[in-house]
Structures are given as structure tokens and as C-alpha cells.
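Now for one specimen:
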Amino acid sequence: MAGQFRSYVWDPLLILSQIVLMQTVYYGSLGLWLALVDALVRSSPSLDQIFDAEILGFSTPPGRLSMMSFILNALTWG
């Protein structure tokens, strides 16, 4: 039976590669959404928009832009 999925074998390399791929796709698409939103409002892009917890919130304009990008990213890939 060629081509049958190995559901009885635990493959840690497969699991790790799937985790890495999903994280890469998630953060890559989030970066694209942030770049697009920043370009639309002429804001300067920063890695703090992704990784800084203090920016994530609706109380400041950069926080609203970041949250809008996170929501668009979730709707795109959800």
C-alpha cells in the first residue's frame, strides 16, 4: 500500500517542522498586514508592533493599528 499515511508512527521531526512552518506563516502574514496598514496611514514600521506587549491595546493610535493588523491576520488565516 504505497502512499498511505503513517498514523501509527510518532514522528517528532514532522511535528517540529509543522510548528515551525505555522509560526513562519503566521508571523510572515502579520508582518505583511502591519506593513500594509503602516503604509496606508504613513506610520513608521517597528518590530515593537509585533513583540511589545505595551503597544498592544486600543488606548494609543499605534496600538489600534497593531490590533487592526492582528485582527486582519486572524480573519485571513482563521
Notes: The helical segments are 12-41, 48-51, 61-77. The two ends are 35 Å apart (CA to CA). The chain has one domain: 12-76. The first helix runs from residue 12 to 41.
